[in-house]
Amino acid sequence: RLDNEERILEDDGWWKLEDDLLGKFETQLRPDTSKTIISHNTSPDIPFDRSINPYKGCEHGCIYCYARPTHSYLGMSPGLDFETKIFFKENAAVLLERELRRQGYECKPIALGVNTDAYQPAEKELKITRSILEVLSAYNHPVSIITKSSRILNDLDILAPMGQKSLVHVMISVTTLDPNLARSMEPRASSPANRLATLKMLHEAGVPTGVLASPMIPAINDNELEAILEASAEVGAVQAGYLLLRLPFELKQLFIDWLRVHFPDRENRVLNLIRQCREGSLNTSGFGVRMRGTGPYAEILNK
């Protein structure tokens, strides 16, 4: 979108991938040479003003991920490239400690993994997120984490002591309790049952937890909102939130293609309900409305 070149939208094969074919598409891990680690924002509808994303791209392959179009800035596809060409910030811990030691640094909670999951499969090998937590723990720096991966439990030895000091808060993303729906929407993320079990284990370890039922997709998973909240509360979640599906830039067509494959009978209903919440469009970007939409349907969800 930023280069002087023409882009023609075409199927890159992402939605045809079955789990037994994934081996044909090897994940490529590439170092990110960014010179800074903390991103700042002034958005009035986001509850944090700084964040760290250890990775660009995400192997989880969630069809609804609003971060997919960011791979276009790298000259890559928001489809298959986003899922298989993963950039990692190898010097994240060094950059973070340098920032924390900078004169005049203002200590406020850092949100970890808000664009792409900090505990995606690459973390098992690279441990970038763990290195970040080690620095934050050493400096008694507050952090919040959003993930849909049970892999976060690998860092419980760091998170539990931080939880005792009220330095960490974890939100587990649960979009559905239906494993079949989860498998089609989030093919390489932890199962719904594993996410609830992760919530329970974090809670029992003294880590403050919550559930993020996001995104809510009209006529796909919206009927599960109350059940998700109830199931999460039963295992220790003390906070909850949700966001309405967002479809920025190239994500619109990717999502439509997915609908046509998995829910062809619901395509028109889903898209029409989204338009009702998005002022006649499939996406709105204005502060105050982009997260939850407007109109009768959006108001029902909000209740």
UniProtKB/TrEMBL annotation:
Coiled coil: none annotated. Pfam families: Radical_SAM. Keywords: Iron, Iron-sulfur, Metal-binding. The keyword DNA repair does not apply. It comes from marine metagenome. SMART domains: Elp3 (SM00729). GO terms for molecular function: catalytic activity; iron-sulfur cluster binding; metal ion binding. InterPro entries: Elp3/MiaA/NifB-like_rSAM, MJ0683-like, rSAM, rSAM_sf. This is Elp3/MiaA/NifB-like radical SAM core domain-containing protein. Signal peptide: none annotated. Residues 48-275 form the Elp3/MiaA/NifB-like radical SAM core domain.
